[in-house]
Model the fold of this input.
Amino acid sequence: MEIGVSVTIMKRSPRVRTYRMGVRAEAAAATHRCILEVAIRLLGDRFYDEVSLAEVARGAGVTVQTVLRRFGSKEGLTEAATALGVERVRAERWSSPPGDLDDAVRGLLAHYEAWGDRSLRFLAQEQRVAAMGGVVRAGRALHHDWVDHAFEPWLARKRGAMRARLRARLIAVTDVYVWKIVRRDLGLDERAAEATLRELVAAVVA
Done:
């Protein structure tokens, strides 16, 4: 009887250990994600110099040592948070099929309503804070890729310098600064801002 029990325990042990390792891995991944979510929120709402690792750790319910162990430094944390933010924005922006101008503009405006003010804050720090320069470069590259995706049917009709100029016009007319002008500076509501952006884009591709 005792031998049988021992054999049973031995057979079950690897499975139990695997389960426990899986639970620990899930908990570690959740902690990792929570730290990044807090970092994205704080870095988006404030200037880089105003955000401390202690505050990030407190918001995530962990210690500063845990943050450093996972990301190495504030710069490393910012880089990881940027990668997650880009992944999220890419999923949102790429939901519109190529060539659907109305849906592309609608999605762009929704993105800027959520991220526009944060993007402007990042841009204001681009030359002053190296880590923010990385954030801006990642966002700029994503925007350019989105233009290639959203307006591919129109870009495909052009070649060489003509294509390059059309692409440059589309990048410019859909830039966050245009959103800032119509929404923040001129005070247009969302519906009017969407109509304005649509008209600008339509004029470019016409």
